[in-house]
Design goal:
Helix 9 (221-237) runs antiparallel to helix 10. The termini are far apart. It is elongated, with a radius of gyration of 23 Å. It has an 8-stranded mixed beta sheet, with helices on both faces. The relative contact order is 0.08. By secondary structure, it is α/β, with parallel strands linked by helices. Helices cover 48% and strands 14% of the residues.
């Protein structure tokens, strides 16, 4: 790659510090900045007293808490902005428009990893906008999603939605079996095996939502609405909160009421699309 460029990292939370450490490990000259002085300076980096000092680097990587924190810092003094601050697709697109108007090269990315994974092959960095940027390779495996700057945030929230749904369902399940004295260690192996089976249905389900042909000879929505009713009742009988199963039941039942009772579960997406 030749002489490695100078990089500044704005934000020294756990993730920002991990990013700075990874850049140092790859031989970059790294400057760091944080709003408060209570965060330690990562080894091998130079501490900037102001954002303007940090903007002198060839590349500025932002890993801040919100776009509201980031927005006031942005200036056309930045040469290249690699934005790893979490936000919505529209926030990313607005920042991309600002960058274009101000002559700033822009890359929008999201980190699908925990801080401890940064700098390893297990860290996946989804990014959009500019098709390639060398600093991302220091953090993990970069995956380019397209020129639309909002795609990284869109994928991020979609994937996190899957994760949060699984976690919510798992915790609800633990509470349910726990009401009968069953320990997590006994239940969890069955749950992980079941999840492995469930994920095998996703490719076909995805294809069905695209074709919108919801005919099925496997498991009609009617059956699943009944099952969700039983799940909700069982949780209520055990004195548990029923927010999660009730919400799913109501969503599935709405699709059933709108003519999808004999169709596959994939037909529920028509209610979500509304």
């Amino acid at each position: 790659m030749g002489i490695k460029k100078t990089v500044s990292v704005l934000g020294l939370g756990r993730m920002g510090s991990a990013l700075a450490n990874a850049l140092v490990g790859e031989g970059y000259e790294v400057t760091v900045w944080n709003r408060s002085g209570d965060k330690p300076t990562p080894a091998g980096t130079k501490r900037a007293a102001t954002p303007q000092e940090a903007f002198k680097s060839d590349v500025v990587v932002t890993c801040l808490s919100t776009y509201d924190v980031q927005q006031p810092l942005l200036t056309n003094e930045i040469k290249t902005l690699v934005n790893l601050t979490s936000g919505t697709p529209e926030q990313a697109r607005a920042t991309a428009q600002w960058a274009k108007a101000n002559g700033v090269e822009y890359v929008d990315g999201v980190i699908m990893a925990v801080p401890q994974q940064i700098g390893t092959a297990s860290a996946r960095i989804l990014f959009s906008g500019n098709e390639n940027h060398h600093v991302l390779q220091a953090f993990g495996e970069p995956v380019h999603l397209g020129e639309d700057a909002g795609l990284a945030a869109l994928y991020d929230l979609a994937l996190l939605g899957v994760m949060w749904s699984v976690f919510g369902g798992y915790l609800q399940a633990l509470a349910l079996v726990g009401s009968a004295g069953i320990a997590p260690g006994k239940f969890t192996p069955l749950a992980t095996d079941w999840l492995a089976t469930v994920t095998t249905f996703l490719p076909e389900m995805g294809a069905v939502t695209q074709s919108r042909n919801y005919e099925t000879d496997v498991s009609a929505l009617d059956i699943n609405v009944s099952g969700l009713r039983l799940l909700t009742e069982a949780n209520r009988e055990q004195g548990l909160d029923t927010t999660v199963p009730q919400a799913l039941h109501d969503l599935f039942e709405r699709a059933q009421s709108n003519g999808h009772g004999a169709h596959s579960i994939a037909s529920v997406i028509e209610e979500i699309r509304k």
